[in-house]
Specification:
Blueprint lengths: L2 E7 L2 H11 L7 E7 L18 E8 L8 H17 L5 E4 L3 E4 L2 E13 L2 E11 L15 H5 L5 H20 L3 H10 L8 E5 L4 E9 L5 E5 L4 E4 L4 E3 L1
Parallel strand pairs: 1-2
Antiparallel strand pairs: 2-3, 3-7, 4-5, 5-6, 6-7, 8-9, 8-12, 9-10, 10-11
The structure holds biotin (BTN).
Biotin (BTN) binds next to helix 1, strand 3, strand 6 and strand 7.
């Protein structure tokens, strides 16, 4: 395993992307940091993490022939890999569409995938993962939790990182070997609130009842309305109440 360990950096994603413009890195090169000064998140554009407590890392994935139209399957593969590892620590782990990893109703891990695309092919991706491991207090983040909060013990971050990389390699193997239905099915099976009637809010503030029944091949969330009609939503078009 090729792991570059840093004590502090702006963002492991940005560092790895920049490094790869200068050096021909091998597939699955990992950059991990104790602290990020400009950690990037998806929804809120920041990812805050206490120095040295959590896993903050990015993995380079290189592809030979990966159509951009299949990009949702990369998200399924990455989410599944984290799900499988964390499930061995905590039974309550679920994937909240599109890629928040939840322990019960709280977020324990976030994923930020940045693709480099040329001629409708993804030629490489940088997969950034922020996993809350040993942090106990999350100022102003009531929805966040960590392994230590839930297990009441310190977790070995280096060992966990290795487990995550091995699981990621397994899932990317399925992606490269076009086991796309398998990746989608296993992702769906692990989804937060799948088949459970829930309240949603659309981006124009409509509140409605529905139940998640799956995801499309392009990663849209499929929600069955009370009327029986199934609607598909893109990221940020819908949220739980
Ligand atoms: C999210 O908002 O859910 C995604 C968070 C992703 C955070 C990780 S931490 C390591 C990597 N480097 C970054 O700047 N962001 C990702």
């Amino acid at each position: 395993m090729n792991i570059h360990k840093l004590s502090a950096i702006n963002s492991t994603n940005d560092y790895l992307k920049e490094l790869y413009t200068k050096v021909d890195l091998e597939n699955f090169t990992v950059v991990s940091a104790d602290f990020q000064t400009k950690g990037k998140g998806q929804v809120v554009s920041k990812w805050n993490s206490e120095n040295g407590k959590n896993l903050l890392f990015s993995v380079l994935l290189k592809f030979d022939n990966f159509d951009i139209q299949d990009s949702a399957f990369l998200n399924f593969a990455v989410s599944n890999s984290i799900y499988y590892v964390l499930k061995t620590y905590l039974p309550s782990i679920k994937i909240k569409w599109p890629n928040d990893i939840m322990a019960g109703n709280k977020k324990i891990c976030g994923i930020l995938i940045e693709n480099s695309v040329k001629n409708k092919k993804i030629n490489h991706s940088v997969v950034g993962i922020g996993l809350n491991v040993n942090q106990l207090i999350f100022p102003n983040l009531p929805q966040a939790t960590s392994l230590k909060i839930l297990l009441d013990k310190n977790i070995d971050k280096d060992f966990l990182l290795k487990e995550l990389i091995i699981a990621l390699k397994d899932e990317i193997y399925y992606l490269e070997n076009k086991k796309l239905s398998y990746l989608k099915k296993t992702y769906q099976d692990s989804l937060f609130k799948i088949n459970i009637p829930s309240m949603f809010k659309s981006k124009n503030n409509n509140v409605f009842m529905g139940k998640i029944i799956g995801v499309s091949k392009t990663g849209l969330l499929q929600v069955e309305m009370e009327s029986g009609i199934v609607r598909e939503y893109a990221n940020k078009e819908i949220g739980f109440m």
